[in-house]
Amino acid sequence: MRTTRFTVAMPRPETHLYDITMEVDPNDAASLDIVLPVWTPGSYLVREFSRHIRDFSAKDKSGRPLAAEKIAKNVWRVSLSPSFKANSLSPLSIHYRVYAHDLTVRTSHLDASHGYGNGANLFFYVEGRKDEPQEVAFRLPRGWKTSMALPEKRGVFRAADYDELVDSPFECGTHRMFTFSVEGVPHTLAICGRGNEDSSRIVRDLKKLVREASALFGGLPYERYLFLVHLSPGARGGLEHRASQSVALDPHAFRPEKAYRDALLLFAHELFHAWNVKRIRPEAFGPFDYAHEVYTKDLWALEGMTSYYETLLPLRAGLLTEAQAFEQWTAQWKGHLETPGRKVQSAEMASFDTWIRFYRPDENSPNVSESYYRRGGLLGLALDLTLRRATGGGRGLDDVMRRLFRAYAAKGKGYPPGAFEEASARVAGAGPLVRGFFDRYVRGTGTPDLARLLRIAGLRLREVPEAEEGITDAQPPRVRATFGWKVKAEDGRLVVAEVLSDGPAERGGVNAGDLLAAVDGLRATEERVARLEKERKPGSRVAVTVFRRDVLATLRIRLGARRASVWKIDALADAPPDARRLKARWLRKLSA
Taking the CA of residue 457 as centre, how many other CA atoms within 13 Å lie in the half-sphere pointing to its CB? Predict the structure, then answer.
């Protein structure tokens, strides 16, 4: 079988240039189109990786140059001479360099300290031949090593096809590695950089997360797994892969305890993706079209339900308390309710439009859109409770995920449109109930009655005052004045970043981008604006002076009202026994 072979060299890593050689077994064609992806799976935005390619050339086995012409933004056509085609066993060699100086989970980075590679940024494929085996070897600076989830033999990493190659990021350098096993499957934690982490504690907790995820699905779907962590100032993010995850965190992201819990949620999120997205996936999600946008209306389920389980898994594993898990869900609930775009954009359309909206937010985004991560996470919680109510607590979202895994993922297939709804209806045994849920909350812009759903588990959702000295949960939330905007300090000035739909600022004529000069004749500062909202009453008029395109204007704003509150979930003291049993079954530890 024809095999594509890559050699990745980094002779001068301080230049941020990967030197890559690609050897391709020829076929009978007069030319080969060599293609680089324009996006990377898991990050749904056309990023034009080919802008970092330079010095592309091709030659035959004897070193004679072959004609190579760039015919599209990400495609080079290599013409094969008659003499070359006469010896079809001779591979052609393609050489190019890639500038890599963007340290994020979706791009690649190389400097004197390490090399990180995301395959979609670095590796070409031959048009029409993505299904062929791929091999990668590395030429490393002295003292460096490579971590990669692909199987390795004598320094060569092997992938079954191009999709698997692209789905296997690598780290080269002097990173630290910690190995552990769960159910006989090897796992590696690779950490690049140093911070305030306790690696032994992280390993212990990762083992608990893996065991809990395995218990949910009845086993691990991979032969090995790599937790790849970059510690970099200000970093935060993750990207899922079939047998690994790439996570970026601030070096001090592990203390205090709240920060450590947030890091665990990120690990749990990307781990759950090994099932949901990487195996439970829409039909369009593999084999991928790397040259164009790939659309689905199910990101609310793929990312949103994963966001739900990123809290549920650590809770079941004993890494979060119930109160901490409930705090995560109520924070999402508050953010959802305070986003005007929730009434404009459905979960399905947020999923479909991710290519033009989610990764390109602007000042109007909160008014017209809602994150499919947040909304989807709340829909996961609401659907789980809806299914448990319909089945007397006997079945829930766990059963939906297992059903989808058995029906499609275990057979190596993507699922067809509507599969999440169909699986939910089968689990509930009540098609109209589930259809109504999807009509209102997935295809529609409604918000589930979370308070009513939580009551079936003996829990109460209530609005309580924001933390303030002398104020207790027993008191009703106070009503505060609000401008209905978001401001930010920028180069020593205060700028209006967002103006919320139908709020006081919008009605008063304030625009996003206005430079806020004064409020009631006094210089505008973040502290002064916040104090004014706290001290004035709703309905009060405030003179707001702004510069707009260097023109000074004073606007009269009538302050609106907001409830100074947060949300809290706690147990009902008089919850009946069946509600207590339902809650215990819902949140119970699954692993032995």
Answer: 28
CB hemisphere CA count around 285 (13 angstroms): 27
Residue 123: its pLDDT value, please?
98
In whole angstroms, what is the distance from residue 25 CA to residue 130 CA? Answer: 13
CA 266 to chain CA mean position, Å? 9
How far from 316 is each of 216, 313, 584, CA to CA, in Å? 10, 5, 11
Q: Which CATH superfamily is domain 478-564 in?
A: PDZ domain (2.30.42.10)
Q: Which amino acid is at 445?
A: T
CA distances from 452 to 307, 382, 457 (A): 22, 10, 10
Three-class SS state of 336: helix
Cα–Cα–Cα angle for 330, 584, 435, rounded to 5 degrees: 65
517, 545 contact by CB (below 8 A): yes
User: Is the Cβ–Cβ distance between 459 and 586 less than 8 Å?
Assistant: no
Look at domain 4-156 and name its CATH class: mainly beta
Class of 299-455 in CATH: mainly alpha
pLDDT, tens digit (0-9, with 9 covering 90-100), for 76-131: 999 997 655 545 567 999 999 999 999 999 999 999 999 999 999 999 999 999 99
Domain ranges of the chain: 4-156, 176-262, 299-455, 478-564
Closest CA to 434 of 374, 376, 384, 378: 384
Positions of the chain with pLDDT lower than 70, given as ranges: 82-89, 469-470
Look at domain 176-262 and name its CATH class.
alpha beta
